[in-house]
Amino acid sequence: MKDYYNPIAYQVTAAEEGWLLKTVLSRRLGVSRKLMSRLKLTEQGITLNGERVYISHYVKEGDLVEVRLERETSEDILPQPIAFDILYEDEALLIVNKAPGIIVHPTHGHYTDTLANGVVYYWQEKGEQYRFRPVHRLDQETSGVLAIAKNAYVHQHISEQMIAGSVLKKYTALVHGTPPAAEGRIDGPIDRDPLEPHRRIITESGYPALTFYRVREVFAAGSLVELQLGSGRTHQIRVHMTSIGCPLIGDKMYSYEALDLPAPDPEAAVRLNAAIGRQALHAAQLGFVHPLSKEEVVFEAPLPADMAELRREMAANRL
User: Fold this and answer.
1) What letter would DSSP give residue 317?
2) How far is the C-alpha of 149 from the C-alpha of 131, rounded, in Å?
3) Is residue 184 part of a domain?
4) Is residue 100 a contact partner of residue 157, using CB atoms and an 8 Å limit?
5) Which residues pair with 26 in a beta bridge?
6) Within 13 Å, how many C-alpha atoms sit on residue 40's CB side?
7) What is d(CA 11, CA 14) in angstroms, rounded to the nearest whole number?
8) CB 263 within 8 A of CB 176
9) Is 125 a member of any domain?
10) Rounded Cα distance, 81 and 85, in Å
11) Domains held by the chain: number
12) In 3D, which of 176, 204, 195 has the Cα closest to residue 281?
């Protein structure tokens, strides 16, 4: 017998009487066409007053519309006891503070020791059954807030908010040098580097990319910068900050040296890069409308120990 998650319910109002069930599903519950087609194939996927009906059925005031998603698992992910920091969890979401250095999802050559392995193990130990569905990505070296959806409906809703540009994504970075203005915007289309496919470059033929920045602290050899994404391109912050002469400290791919760019203070750049073993980038805040409660939520993760220590050393002018 199939097992389902708790139903997502909606009661038809007087203003909606006479609507088709599929209209209620789309406009009030926000069920996509793809998900609706999938739900129709399951016995209890879509019900009206507890009964399975066609989505072309007309509804009346007071009718109870319920959507049930089948329980899923990530059978292709090996459960592993890997510790991770939980910021928030409910029936829809798991929000974690990703540690630097850990890969989010198994990839070719990295089938174990990822965040996914740890999360699947955590759910298994709790006797819960979900598929690992991160709704966005963080580079291996980037730390901070990461949202994981517990079902397809939740994943769809947050993904749509990301596409619409309504998701709040704030980052904190330690960079070489100081940006030309205390705050500003970097508007530069991004695409793959034809000579180095793993690297991204700013090019007129690229995909639109917008980053807002604000300088929070200025030190002798670098700055603490707050960044907010206006789009979500791969390596966007790293590429954009390098484009204004302030690459992220510790970033090996977009460093002065890697891109053969002149460093204002080469010796200081070497010291700073050696002081932290990864790019000094942290996803500090993530905000969106909760798919079930419909309330705006914001999750925050404190500056990790390695970046906090680097900031102290830079503030004390020891680097």
Assistant:
1) T
2) 8
3) yes
4) no
5) none
6) 14
7) 10
8) yes
9) no
10) 13
11) 2
12) 176
pLDDT of 127-158, one tens digit each?
Answer: 999 999 999 989 999 999 999 999 999 999 99
Q: Confirm whether 206 is domain-assigned.
A: yes
Question: What's the Cα-to-Cα distance from 148 to each of 62, 83, 242, 286, 292, rounded to whole Å?
Answer: 34, 16, 30, 12, 14
Kindly write down the DSSP assignment for every residue of 170-231, as one continuous string: EEEEEEES--SSSEEEEE--EEE-SS-TTSEEE-TTSB--EEEEEEEEE-SSEEEEEEEESS
What's the one-letter identity of residue 87?
Answer: L
CATH code of the domain in which 46 resides: 3.10.290.10
Compute the half-sphere exposure of residue 129: CA atoms within 13 Å on the CB side of its CA: 11
97 vs 115: CA distance, rounded Å: 11
User: For position 298, what pLDDT does the model report?
Assistant: 98
pLDDT of residue 260: 86
246-256: b (≥16 Cβ within 10 Å) or e: bbbbbbebbbb
Query: What is the dihedral sign for C-alpha 294, 123, 278, 312?
Result: positive
How many whole angstroms separate alpha carbon 229 and alpha carbon 231?
Answer: 5
Please report, for residues 50, 164, 187, the alpha-carbon distance to residue 240 in angstroms, rounded to integers and kept in the order given: 53, 21, 8
Sign of CA dihedral 229, 235, 237, 241: negative
| 47-98 pLDDT, tens digit each | 999 999 999 999 999 999 999 998 888 889 999 999 999 999 999 999 999 9
Q: What is the pLDDT of residue 317?
A: 86
Range of the domain at 32: 8-67
Cα separation, 295 vs 286, whole angstroms: 14
CA dihedral for 117, 118, 124, 127, sign (positive or negative): negative
Picking from 29, 44, 67, the residue at the C-terminal end of a domain is: 67
pLDDT at 1 over 90: no
Q: 139 catalytic, yes or no?
A: yes
Which of 176, 180, 170 has the alpha carbon at shortest distance from 246?
Answer: 176
| Candidate list 76, 85, 113, 139, residue with the active-site label | 139
Amino acid symbol at 33? R
